[in-house]
């Protein structure tokens, strides 16, 4: 078994792949590789990866089965999953979502 797993990160138009140690949380792996999982305020005031604040949301294609209540709701209703509640055990593709205040997503605009 390989010690690392490829994680492809989509950030706007940028796409890159990083090798992540198997068993790490996605939140920690993203932060360690310089990706922003928090908004401007929540990057300073968050729960530290305990699944309490709901601000480290990312979109994950083919994500592992949710085990945390927030992620179960996210999977059911189609909003971002908490990166702190996803353990990297298999290849993943992750899309970072734009946030403005306290991890909030920007509202959809109809022009």
TrEMBL record:
Domain (2Fe-2S ferredoxin-type): residue spans on this chain: 5-100
Pfam family name, one: Fer2
GO terms for MF: iron-sulfur cluster binding
Organism domain of life: Archaea
Name of the protein in question: Na(+)-translocating NADH-quinone reductase subunit F
Originating organism: Halolamina pelagica
């Amino acid at each position: 078994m390989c010690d690392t797993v490829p994680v492809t990160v989509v950030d706007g138009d940028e796409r890159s792949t990083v090798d992540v140690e198997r068993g790490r949380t996605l939140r920690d792996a993203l932060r360690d590789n310089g990706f922003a999982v928090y908004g401007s305020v929540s990057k300073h005031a968050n729960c530290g990866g305990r699944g309490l604040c709901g601000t480290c949301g990312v979109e994950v294609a083919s994500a592992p089965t949710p085990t945390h209540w927030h992620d179960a709701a996210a999977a059911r209703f189609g909003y971002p999953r908490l990166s702190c509640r996803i353990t990297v055990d298999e290849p993943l593709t992750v899309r970072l979502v734009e946030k403005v205040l306290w991890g909030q997503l920007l509202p959809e605009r109809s022009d």
